[in-house]
Structures are given as C-alpha cells and as structure tokens.
Design goal:
- By secondary structure, this protein is an alpha+beta fold.
- The chain folds into three domains: about 300 residues, no CATH class; about 100 residues, no CATH class; about 160 residues, Glucose Permease (Domain IIA) (Distorted Sandwich), CATH 2.70.70.10.
- The chain has 24 helices and 14 strands.
- The radius of gyration is 31 Å and the shape is elongated.
- The chain starts with 6 loop residues before the first helix and ends in a 21-residue tail after the last helix.
Length: about 675
C-alpha cells in the first residue's frame, strides 16, 4: 500500500495555517530572488559590449551564416583561424536578427533570457504533472532561476539556455499522461533540437526521458523514443558532415577535446557545494526515497546521474559554470519532488520542514548572486567609458586585429574575426593546429593591434595564447595603452599616440601623462602615477607641446619645457622620472631621446617612455609607476640645478586633478577636479 494521502487529505494538510504561511514566505523569497535576476538580465541586455569571451564568436558565426558561408571549415591552416564549437541551431536562431538589425549581442542575450524563464516554466510543469502539487511546482521553477550560475549565464549571448530549454521542454512533454504517439515524436524532436544546440545534451535528458517512458509507459515506446532521437540525430550528423567536407566533425568533436584538470573540477565542485548544499542533500534524499514514494524518481534518478556525469567535464581547460546548468535544473526538480512527497505526509511537520529548507536555500543563493554576480556585471558596465575608447581605437585600426576577451569590438563593427585565440591555442597544444602563420604575422608586425585582457589575479591569458605567441608579442610589439583591463599592443617602431588619449580631465589645460589604475600618490611636490601592468610596458606621454631635454646622467628621466598656460611669458618644465628597472640601470625612456638630448620638439601625446619600478634607491623597488612634477624654470628658461621644494609647482591646476585632502604620501584613486 502506497504511503500517500487522498486528494482531500492532502488539501486538508495544505490548509493548515502554519503551512500556508511557510509556503507564502518561501514563494515571496523566491520571487524576490527571481526579481533580482530580472534586474540583472535587463542591465546585461542594455550593455553594448561583450560580457563573456564566448559571445563574439557566436555573433561572428551568425554573421557568416547569414551570408551563406560555411561555418564548419575542415581546414583552418589559413585565416580566419576560427572554430565553430557547437551545432548550428542557436547560431541559426540568431542569424536572422543579425541580418536584419546588424551585429549585436542584444538578440543573443534576449534568447538566453527568454529560455531561462522557459526552463523555469518547464521545471514547474514537470513537477506539477507528476505530483499535482502547485506549491512544489512553483518553488521548483523559481528555484532554478535562483541559482547564481543561471543568473549569470542567462545574461550572456551563449547557446546553453536554449539547449536546456529544448531538453526540459522535451521532458515536460513526455511526463504528460497519457503519452500518445504525437507527444512521443514531439519529445524526441525536442531532444534532437537540444543536441543540435549543444552536443553534450545528448546524455542527461535523453537518458531521463528513456527511463521515464520505460518505467511509466512500456518498453516499446521507450525504444521508439530512442530510435527517433538517435535516427534523426545521426542522420543530421551525417548530412552536415557531408555538406561541410568533414568540417562539422572537426569543429564540434575534435576541437572540443581540451586538456582536463582535476583542479578545475575541484574548484567548480567547491563552488557548487558552497552555493547549493541543501539542494544537493535533497537530491540524494530524493533518490533514497525510491520509486514508490517519490513520484518523480523515474525521471530524477537518471537525470541526476546524467547531469552529474556531464558536470565532470567542467574540469576541461577553459570551461565555466555553463557546464553546471543541467545539474541546476536536476537539483530544482529533485527539490520539487521531495517537497511534494513531504507535503503528502499525514503529519504537517515534514512538509513544513521541506518548504523551509527550500526557502532557506533560495535565500542563500540570492545572497551569493548579490555578492558575486552583481559586482561582476557592474564592473563591466562601469568600464563603459574605457570600452568606448577601445572601440574607437579598434575602429580606426586596419585589419587584421588580434583580440581575446574584447574581440567583440570587431563583430560590433561588422568585421569578421581573424582568430579565436583560446580555441586555436588548445588545438596547438594538442598538436592539431600549426601556429606558424600567426607567429610569422606577429614577428613581421602584420597586425596593427593586438588586444590581450588581463583578469585580476588569474592568468587566463596563458590559456588563450601559446607561450610562443606571447614571446613573439613581447619581442615585436609594445604596450601603448590599457582600457578596461585590456592591454593594447602596437608594433615596435610605430610612433605617435593612440587614436584616443589615455586620459584627459575635463577643463584641464594639459592631458595626463599616463594611466593610474592603481591610483596616485602626492609627495613633496611630486605626483606618482601607479599603473596596472608590467614594468617597461605602460606608456608615458608628453602632457603638452614643448622642447624635450635629457641630461647625461638621467637614466630614468626626461624634462620638457613649455609655455606656462597660466602666466604669460613664463616658462615651466614637466619632469618625468623613475622610468627604469628596479636597480635604475635598465632605462625605459623612449629610444628617440638619448642621453644629452636637447631641444627635441615633442607634441601633446607623444610617447616619451614607459613606467618603471625604480624608486631612486637601490634594492627598494616600487610598484610600476612614473614620477611627475611641474617645475618653475630659471630666469633664462633653463632647468633648475636641483629639484628643491621652492621650484616645484602644484601640478593639480595644470592636469585638472583634485588635490588630495588630509595627509599626503598615501596612495589614492585618481580624481579629476571637475568630477568632485
């Protein structure tokens, strides 16, 4: 005899006031977290620039598909050095929007957002069809949206939410009883659609669908489902592979076999256990309940097993939390099944306890999203001004431009990608791609710009560029500026400023001499600008037109004479120092200005050197910086013999900087006076 209540008994148990309050409270919490997700999605949708490395390649593929080009090339020995890692359904969905409205990340993100909500709806429908418990169904669907991984990935123009929506829709169709032939075919075709959006979706959902139909219906229909799914999928694979001359297999199979790291798996598993410990516990309990007590067991058990196996691939180099999205859906379904079982018990407390657990778990995930996901999105949005400058620089440069994180600057301008550095680097490391053409292009300075993004504290760029590429860039290119943590490299020997100045404070008579992402320090009439990057790579520019001189004994410094913009007829000097290595012997002054140089004409924005780590004292290096001062000229206009306090002028009015309040000598963020 099954341990369940009648419809009347269940209604009575659910009508207990304390249970109503608990369900209402849990639903309110879940709705608040879902509202947080909506706000996050809206802000992502209205951000013009890339939010993730993988967005630009998909837009590029949609552009090429809209033009009728083959996006699955079997040979990438000649440019473009790009790879289409996934089946074509998402790309085909985005292609009409790209053709009608031009390249943009908006429509790809909109597809992901809509699909995230379809996933939540399908999750709720699955629980409802199997249990007839509205509260469990509602909380199951909202719980899926509460996962921080879902909040993040639903904001990207990526394939994963569309694939998951197809797979959950298939399960929602197949769980409906009675299962007729039309629903069987529809479910199979939805599974095929999921597979041809992301190939890894050929495991968990098809396995869960097969076991469910086998145990709930009969063996004939279960194998009929397998036959339709496998037959259509196999036929499409053979057709696409033949049409592309073997390119489909190379792109979606060979190019996806990256190196696997146990450390990557351990790190992501740790994130999952910190984020959803209660749901993981409920999932284990849902399996332990067995088929007699858990109405969703026949689907949850194989779905959890399949999604757990798929999650193991998160250990691949370059993988991300999108590998956990299926598992998030499985955990939400498991929680819904356990909650429905608990609410059917004769005693009130099991259902009350289950609802409380789900509510606490959803609140915990909402807190993580607020503390982890929102700052990442805000950091991208706060960099909009720098990204506009980067976009202008890329727009003014010729082709081909090499880029990684912000290769989307090219797709936004309708320009095809020349290279996907991560994908081809992984192929090169596996011996499946010859990098010699790209190395030759770097060494011969064929690329007008190379953009490399540096994440704080994580050397992701080493996964995206081979060691040989990085060495060639260091030899043949110079860092000319940094925008939104992206270093802009230009060929050695190419002089003059970038298309956009580094920084100019509004209303200032002079521009700033260099970047100061880490801040500025005011001390004894000098200002130290601390940049973010490596010593000898961050450029220093002339703040105004003038005549440059460099004394014989200045290894790290130059000075430029200007007309004082505030006092007619007076001459002033700008002094740039500490442009040397940690011991003061390796000079980073631009090679155009040799020792004893005098009366060399420089223009505003001309490169005069690079930030160094020399502090003026041996064995006491400083963080990468340049020391700047405005110096009163002698009566004859010459540079003073010594930089004493009486000859140093306040640089703040000249540069438009906000002078520091309180004690000086402390590192502070750079602030313009006009923005105070």
């Amino acid at each position: 005899m099954q341990c369940v209540l009648t419809q009347t008994q269940q209604h009575d148990a659910s009508s207990v006031p304390v249970m109503k309050i608990a369900i209402s409270a849990a639903l309110i919490v879940a709705a608040i977290v879902a509202g947080l997700g909506i706000a996050h999605q809206f802000l992502a949708l209205t951000h013009r620039y890339p939010l993730d490395y993988g967005e630009a390649p998909l837009v590029d593929q949609a552009m090429r598909l809209a033009r009728g080009q083959n996006i699955y090339r079997a040979d990438i020995s000649a440019p473009p050095f790009t790879v289409s890692n996934y089946p074509p359904l998402y790309i085909a969905t985005m292609a009409p929007f790209v053709a009608w409205f031009g390249p943009s990340f908006f429509f790809g993100r909109l597809i992901s957002i809509v699909c995230a909500w379809i996933c939540a709806l399908c999750s709720g429908l699955i629980v409802w069809q199997a249990t007839r418990d509205r509260a469990a169904a509602s909380l199951s669907g909202l719980s899926f949206l509460a996962f921080p991984f879902v909040m993040r990935w639903s904001s990207f123009a990526r394939i994963d939410l569309l694939a998951l929506a197809f797979s959950l829709a298939a399960l929602a169709v197949l769980v409906h009883r009675p299962l007729n032939n039309w629903r069987l075919v529809a479910g199979a075709l939805l599974l095929v659609a999921a597979i041809y959006t992301r190939q890894s979706y050929a495991l968990a959902a098809p396995l869960a669908a097969f076991v469910w139909v086998l145990l709930q219906e009969d063996i004939r229909r279960a194998f009929g489902l397998v036959a339709i799914t496998a037959g259509v999928s196999g036929g499409l694979f053979l057709a696409l592979n033949a049409l592309t001359g073997g390119g489909f297999y190379f792109n979606v199979v060979v190019a996806n076999v990256n190196a696997w790291s146990a450390d990557n798996l351990s790190w992501n598993l740790h994130r999952l256990t910190d984020m959803a410990p209660i749901f993981l516990g409920l999932a284990i309990f849902s399996i332990a309940l067995g088929a007699q007590r858990n109405p969703l067991w026949a689907m949850n058990m194989p779905y959890l097993a399949g999604t757990s196996l798929s999650f193991l691939t998160v250990g691949k180099v370059g993988s991300n939390v999108n590998y956990a999205l299926e598992l998030c859906a499985a955990l939400s379904l498991a929680a819904g099944g356990v909650m429905a079982w608990a609410r059917r018990r004769q005693a009130v407390w099991p259902g009350l306890f289950a609802v409380a657990l789900v509510g606490v778990q959803v609140a915990h995930m909402g807190r993580i999203s607020w503390e982890a996901e929102w700052p990442q999105l805000q950091a991208r949005r706060n960099a909009a001004e720098s990204l506009q400058r980067l976009e202008a620089i890329v727009a003014a440069a010729g082709d081909p431009v090499l880029a990684d994180e912000y290769m989307g600057m090219l797709t936004l301008q309708g320009r095809p990608l020349y290279i996907q550095p991560f994908e081809v680097t992984q192929l090169a490391l596996e011996g499946k791609w010859d990098q010699k053409p790209v190395l030759h292009g770097i060494e011969t300075k064929q690329y007008p710009l190379i953009l490399i993004h540096y994440f704080t504290g994580v050397a992701v760029y080493k996964e995206r560029w081979t060691p040989q590429m990085l060495e060639a860039i260091n030899r043949s290119y110079r860092l000319m500026g940094m925008y939104a943590d992206t270093s802009v490299y230009r060929p050695v020997g190419q002089t003059g400023p970038l298309i956009m100045p580094v920084e100019v404070c509004a209303g200032a008579v002079w521009r700033l001499p260099t970047a100061a992402q880490h801040g500025v320090r005011w001390r004894d009439g000098f200002v130290d600008f601390f940049g973010r990057g490596n010593t000898g790579e961050l450029p220093v520019y002339s703040v105004a037109d003038g005549l440059l001189m460099r004394r014989d004994d200045w290894a790290d410094a130059v000075a430029v004479q200007h007309d004082d913009p505030f006092v007619t007829g007076r001459k002033v000097w700008t002094y740039y120092a500490h442009m040397a290595g940690p011991r003061g012997d390796a000079s980073f002054v631009a090679p155009d200005f040799a020792p004893a140089a005098a009366n060399v004409l420089v223009k505003t924005g001309d490169l005069i050197g690079y930030q160094g780590s020399w502090s003026g004292r041996p064995n006491f290096p400083m963080w990468v910086h340049v020391r700047f001062a405005v110096v009163r000229a002698r009566d004859d206009g010459s540079f003073p013999t010594a930089l004493t306090p009486d000859v140093l002028l306040d640089p703040a009015p000249y540069l438009g900087l906000a002078a520091p309040a309180g004690s000086k000598g402390t590192l502070r963020p750079l602030r313009c006076a006009a923005s105070r």
